[in-house]
Amino acid sequence: MSKHVEKMKEFYKNNKKSSLVWYLVLRGLVIITMITSFLRGDFNSVFLCVLTLILFLIPFWINKNLNIDIPNVLEIIIFLFIFSAEILGEINNFYGNIPHWDTILHTLNGFLCAAIGFSLIDILNNSERFHINLSPIFVSLVAFCFSMTIGVMWEFFEFGVDQILKYDMQKDRIVQTISTVTLEPNGENDPVVVDNIYKTVIYSNKDGQPEETTITGGYLDIGIQDTMKDLIVNFVGAVVFSILGYFYIHNRDKYKFAENFIPIKRFSKKEKK
Length: 273
Hints:
Blueprint: H1 3-11, H2 17-39, H3 43-55, H4 58-66, E1 68-69, H5 72-91, H6 94-97, H7 101-125, H8 136-165, E2 173-175, E3 178-180, E4 192-194, E5 199-206, E6 209-216, E7 219-221, H9 224-250, E8 264-265, H10 269-272
Antiparallel strand pairs: 1-8, 2-7, 3-4, 5-6
Helix pairs in contact: 2-3, 2-5, 3-5, 5-7, 7-8, 7-9, 8-9
C-alpha cells in the first residue's frame, strides 16, 4: 500500500470509511482511464485525469491545513461531482450523450457552493473569538450570493477558454427563432423576429479558400442559452440550500440533517480565547 493511501486511511479513520471507499474506487477508475487515454495518445484526457486526482485531494488538504471537518455525505458528493464533471462529462462526453447532464451538475454546484458559503459565515457566527451574531436571513443571503458569485465566475472562465483556446465549453445550441435589432433595415431599435429557421449557411475563408458550412435544423446560438441555463439552475440550487440553511439556524435539532452538507471548523484553544 502506498504512503499516500496510508495517509488517506489515517485521515478517514474516524467515521469516514464510506468516504475512503468512494475515494479509492473513483481514484482507481481515474487511473485506469488515464492509462487507457495515454495508450491511445489522448493526452488531453490524460491531463484531465491528473487534474481530477489533484482535485480529489482537496478535502484532505482542507482538513489538514484549515482544520475544517467536511461531513461524510458532502465529501462523497464532492468526489462524485468531480468524477462526473471531468471523467464522465468531459472524457466520456456525458455532456453530449446524456440529456440534462450539464444541468444536473450546475444545479448541484449551486447547492454545494451555497453550503460552503453558509459554512464560512456560520463558522464565524459560532466562534467565541470571531462571534458576530448575524441574523439567519443574512447568513442565508450571504450563502446565496457566494454561490451565485462562484457560478458567474465559472461562466467567465468558460467564456475565456472558448475565446482564447477556441473550445466550446459554453455549448452552442440550434434554435429556430431569433429576435435581433441588427436586421432592422432602418437601424431602429426595433427587434426583427425571424421564425421557423430550418437552415443556416455560413460562408468563410480557410487558408485563403472559400468554404461553405451548412447548419441544418435552424440557427446556431453561440453559448448564450447554455450560459443563462447554467446560471438559472445554479440559482435554483443556491435558493434551495439557502432556505434549508435559514431553517437550520432557527432550529438546529429539527433540521439536523442539514449538517451533512455543512463543513465545521475545529477551533483551537487559542482561537477560542
